Amino acid sequence: MPRKPVRDKYDAVLDFAPSRAVPSVAYVLVKQTYRIGERGCVLDAAQPLVHDLRDDTLQPRLPPGSDFWIQKQATDVVVQGSAFAPNGRPIRSMTASVTVGKAAKRINVFGNRRLEWRSDGTPVIPYPETFIDMPLTYENAYGGIDVRMDMAPPQSPEELVKFDLLDYPGIYPRNLHGKGYLVRPEPIPGALMPNLENPRDLLTADRLFVRDPRLWYRQPFPWCFDWTNAVMFPRMAYLGLSPCFPPPSDVSLPEVAQGILPANFKQAYSPSLDAADSWPAIFYQEASLGMSFTALSAGIPMAVEGMHPERARIAWQLPSPPSIQVLFEGKRVPATIRLTNCVITPADLRMCLVYAAVIAEMPRVFIPGVHKEIPFLAVIDGDRPLAYAPPVPILEQLEGKG
Fold this sequence. Notes:
The chain has about 400 residues and is mainly β. The chain has a domain at about 1-80 and about 285-400. It contains five helices and 22 strands. The chain is globular and about 80 Å long.
């Protein structure tokens, strides 16, 4: 059943965490939706909070872009949509960009390019085909799988259980969904180049082939504005996971050289897949490279270029956060409020902002499923209070079954 916002101007959730132990914190999530106009942002009809991680039936279990990561210490800025050719006229390449304050990220956008091959077997990158709009997704960024790599099939039920796509030697660990990643240098008919590239690190003919799959880390980063997922490198490294061919842990790895990973990351992050509450804070940041910000304040200028079918540039300022008051037993308690998600869909002129108010010091211990009544309220922007709805106590459930 699709979730419906609790109010016309926002959606909100009140709950405790962790959900399967004695709660150590309470929290309030608030999601506001804005219409981006020529004179700034105005509140629009509320959009629901998405990908509720409390739902045991949620598939996949860690979907990209969940609004329910209260552990985030920074703001993920994500821009979703397509690049649009100016004036709707077919074009072979263009630039799309996002600006947040003084930070800017640009993507070179190309039409489809299928590799061509000379008679001596050397590759040629052709002129791009024309396009009018190009989706800015990781499927169109650099990455993918070279399916020509050999891999011994599982030889026993135990090996079959352990077998995973991430163990395939032809996979590009930074983005298994992309295009353009080639290990073997032999001609491959119909091979596609990526449509999205970093202007400062373009894929040239002499960088097309990795040749040795252990050297995948020398290849370009996938360049996008969208959400990353949990099995992309380096996010997988924060969980203590490693790709089929582990990369070095010194500055020869770009993630270490750029400060994305510490030099000792293989020792710093140990496998802990079953302990979501103990994962390092950096793992919860799901934005693309360079799009997580530790301090976004109201009024900071933002802009998107090349992602609206009619307007070359959209510019606005980040609006003020909502007032979030948290009360236990009728008394106001302090909360740490962070803007966790900022999702922009330029073609719709829409921006969704998610704020997490985390209460680390409750007046006393409250245990959902044990306490029948929990006096936990939130007041958003002076609206009528929202009350926490505790689950039916376990004892009553057992008595009902009896």
